[in-house]
Amino acid sequence: MQYFQEVLTDTVISTSLWDAYDLIGYNGAKITGADAVVAGVAKHPNTVIGDPGAIIRIGTARLKAVGAISAGGAVVSAAAGGVQAQGAGTNRFGRALNAAADGEFVTIVFSIS
User: Fold this and answer.
1) pLDDT tens per residue across span 1-24
2) CA distance to 21, 51, 52, 107, per residue, from 1 (Å)
3) Most-buried pick from 20, 32, 43, 92 (CB within 10 A)?
4) Organism's domain of life (predicted)?
């Protein structure tokens, strides 16, 4: 089950299609690379390129973990979608509120500036 708690939602013009809870970049596209700069988490699916889409910039979201993530650990985007432990990455955008193994769901708190 997916869920989120938003504090600040913003609108971007989409340049790709995305599903709810996908990570979205500042270019308005779904992030597909590891350690990418994240603008927010998609609040709803976007099915038409060029349409405005809501992204959560500050809040919590439950996302798929790629690799093990420890509670309190910093997270970055993962190449396979979802999030991974920061490791050597430089584009941290949130922290895990719970531990998760690879393929499990992790709740993250994030603030995108």
Assistant:
1) 677 899 999 999 999 999 999 999
2) 11, 26, 25, 11
3) 43
4) Bacteria
Give residue 100's domain range. 61-111
Q: Are residues 51 and 66 in the same domain?
A: no
Domain boundary, last residue among 14, 35, 58: 58
Same domain, yes or no, for 51 and 11?
yes
Q: Residue 106 has which token pair?
A: 């992790």
Q: Is the pTM of this model over 0.90?
A: yes
Number of domains into which the chain is organized: 2
Q: Among all chains, which residue has been given the structure tokens 């993962």?
A: 78
Print the SS3 string covering the chain. CCCEEEEEEEEEECCCCECCCCEECCCCCECCCCCCCCCEEECCCECCCCCEEEEEEEEEEEEEECCCECCCCEEEECCCCCEEECCCCCCCCEEECCCECCCCEEEEEEECC
pLDDT digits (tens, 9 = 90+) for 35-64: 999 999 999 999 999 999 999 999 999 999
